[in-house]
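Illustration: Phosphoenolpyruvate carboxylase.
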Amino acid sequence: CPPAGTPSGEAAQAFARALLDGREAALTTPAPLLELFPAALAAAADDQTRLALCVARAGLVAHGLSLAHTHVRLNASQLHNAVRLRFPALGGGPEDPARRRHLFAAIDTALEEARAEPVDTGGLMAEQASAARLMMTVAQVTKHIDASQPIRFLIAETESGFTLLAALLLARLAGVEERIEISPLFETAEALEQRGERVVDEALRSPHFRAYLRRVGRLCLQFGYSDSGRYIGQVAATHLIERLKLRVADLLERYDLSGLEVVLFDTHGEGLGRGGHPDGLDARFDYLDPPAVRAAFARRGIPVRLETAFQGGDGYLLFGTPALAQATVARIAEHAFAPLPQGEPDLVYAEGGFAADLFAGARAAFNGLVEDPGYAAMLGAFGPALLDRTGSRPVRRQSDTGGPATIRHPRELRAIPNNAVLQQLGFPANLMHGLGRGAAREPEAFHELLRRSPRFSNALAFARAGLELSDADVLRGYVASLDPGTWLDRAAQTRRPGRAAALLAVAR
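Result:
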């Protein structure tokens, strides 16, 4: 493989030559290996050996020649830029209502006329558009490395169905439209509150996208709990994500696509931390995959595949020993094969007016907090200095402006550091802000719903945990450390030689 970073032309040429020279000997599908398992199982000396062989075979069938399911990711704007460069008629953005109808007609025409083009390493090196380059990389992977499994093509900040059609267009040009699973990521306030359903609807209106879905056999959607919770509050985000899933079930039925499998991938980075549901794995899986959502898809005959990530400390904790891993897998299996709910619907759906008003009020209150300059100042006062490093990406999102890394809006801080800073400050606002005001308006209805609705109680568990982690005195202490008066008072009282000068310097 070429070295890390941008490879030289010579390194890329050597890599391409190695791929081609080893083409006849290389495996690009596990089929030749899978053919060996029946004989190996028949010859196995004992059950332990047979079990190990079965596990290895299951891994090959599930993941092909990769260690896991391969995902790639980019932003919607990168896709838009790539198709504009190639197709001038697609200039302008889908957010412009004056051009929306023209834009969708133009991209349908482009899809009708598009044909697969040759992809090679030289063309990949020369390509300037990051989205086109990534799609060409996918083509090279499926051609030379593993053609047995589709690659998930995740699109962040998706707020228009045009984005999904743009991805399909680039995939068709690269010859990989049947090798990728185009998956929008819904995480922003706009996507969850207004546009998520419209994104799917706009894409499904295109006969090309419907035909693509029928060929690959599944519709893939991803939901970002940590980012959405950062923008609109965790409990409100939970409600909106569930509502969007239910509406997707309706859309598939409307477009006669009930035969598709639906993949619901939850990034699972809640405000308490990755996988941080306070009530154990049973409640955690019901939180991500509510019984009502499972029932809605089942009524329409739509199979659902739930995917969730166990990342970072969450993965170490739940799979750290054989006993822990066995218990975790057992809980997953219990959830996967749990019976669908019977009888009367959960009270949160049967009498949803109060709950909907509560979540809407909390969402509005949290939006006001997020737009308050003081909130951004609080997050940025200490910022990531309060934390150990979290992952490989920079804590602060990239900006086109230079100068000091001042946080002017919460969106400029990544989700995990954002949530961690709030916990360090003793003020996990993303878990509970705005709920108390709504509950106080109708306390009896609130307590009745909390007592009788498992779904409502499950979602409110985050607010309960947030309250337990809150401490106004901790927040006051941090704020006081930024007040010059605190240091002036200490300077006036100190008796240690030289200490007053140091404290006055801090005050200045």
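Reading the tokens back as a structure: The longest strand covers residues 180-186.
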